[in-house]
Design a protein that fits this description.
Blueprint: H1 3-17, H2 30-44, H3 47-62, H4 71-80, H5 96-108, H6 115-118, H7 123-141, H8 144-160, H9 166-176, H10 184-191, H11 201-209, H12 219-245
Helix pairs in contact: 1-8, 1-12, 3-5, 4-5, 7-10, 8-9, 8-12, 10-11
C-alpha cells in the first residue's frame, strides 16, 4: 500500500483517537468526542465538495433536478455557478473531478429526482464507487483492537520518517490489514487511479477517504479511539510499575 495514502488514513484515525504522549486521566463521553470529530471532518472536506453538496441539497429541496438533461450539464452548473455553501470558493478554484464525484455518486445512489441521470454515470466512476463500498466494508470488518494496534504500530514509523518509508509501512499494513482484504490495489480502484486521468494529491486523497468520511465520526471510530487509549494507558501503567520496581 502506498505510503502517502496509508499515512492519510493513519493520520485521520490518530486525530480522532486523540493518540499522543498524554494519557487521558478521565474517560471522555462519545458525544464530546463526536463533536470534535465532526468539526475535524468538516475541516478536512474540500471546499469543492461542500459547494457541490450544497447545490445538490438545494436542488433536491426545490425539486429542480429535472432542469438538467445530463449529469455533465449539472456538473458544469455547479463548477461555474454560485456558491451555496458559504465557502466563498471562486469557480476557477473548484475541482471538476470532486464535483463530478459528488454528482455521479448521488445519481449512482439513486437520490430522489436523479433517476434520469443515473444511467449517465460513466463506467469508471461506477467501478470506483463499488470499490469504495468494498473498501469501507472491509475496513469496518477489522476488529477495533486490531485497528488500534495498526495505528500504534505505524506511529513510530511516521514520527521517525515524516517524509515516508514505503517498505516498513507497507509491511505493517500487510500484517494488520492484509488479512481483511485491504490492499493497495483496492484503494487504487476506490480512487479510480489509472482510469480517471491525472489527479492532484488532494483529489486522490479525498476519493479514497470519501467512502469512510461519515464513519470517522461514528461509534466505530470512537471504539477505535477507546482501544488506542486503553493500549496507551496500559503501556504507561506497565512503564510506571517497572520504574517503581527498580
Amino acid at each position: 500500500m502506498s505510503t502517502a495514502r496509508l499515512r492519510e488514513e493513519i493520520s485521520r484515525l490518530r486525530e480522532r483517537s486523540g493518540t499522543g504522549a498524554r494519557v487521558r486521566s478521565q474517560r471522555e463521553t462519545f458525544g464530546e468526542w463526536q463533536l470534535r470529530a465532526e468539526t475535524e471532518c468538516d475541516r478536512k472536506t474540500p471546499p469543492s465538495v461542500k459547494v457541490a453538496r450544497a447545490k445538490l441539497r438545494w436542488l433536491r429541496r426545490v425539486d429542480k433536478f429535472s432542469d438538467f438533461e445530463s449529469a455533465q450539464q449539472l456538473v458544469q452548473d455547479i463548477v461555474l455557478g454560485p456558491d451555496f455553501s458559504g465557502c466563498q470558493q471562486p469557480p476557477e478554484e473548484r475541482s471538476s473531478v470532486l464535483v463530478r464525484r459528488e454528482v455521479f455518486f448521488a445519481a449512482w445512489c439513486g437520490d430522489a429526482g436523479m433517476a434520469h441521470l443515473a444511467t449517465q454515470v460513466p463506467p469508471e466512476w461506477s467501478s470506483a464507487f463499488r470499490a469504495g463500498q468494498e473498501w469501507r466494508e472491509k475496513m469496518l470488518s477489522v476488529p477495533v483492537t486490531k485497528l488500534a494496534e495498526w495505528v500504534i504500530a505505524c506511529r513510530p514509523l511516521i514520527e521517525r520518517y515524516p517524509d515516508g518509508v514505503d517498505g516498513e509501512i507497507d509491511r505493517v499494513c500487510e500484517e494488520f490489514l492484509g488479512p481483511y482484504g485491504i490492499s493497495e490495489e483496492l484503494l487504487e480502484r476506490a480512487a479510480g487511479v489509472g482510469s480517471l486521468g491525472d489527479l492532484t494529491s488532494e483529489e486522490t486523497g479525498w476519493l479514497v477517504y470519501a467512502p469512510l468520511a461519515d464513519d470517522y465520526c461514528s461509534e466505530w471510530c470512537w471504539l477505535t479511539h477507546e482501544a488506542v487509549r486503553e493500549i496507551d494507558a496500559s503501556g504507561y501503567e506497565k512503564q510506571s510499575v517497572t520504574k517503581g520496581e527498580m
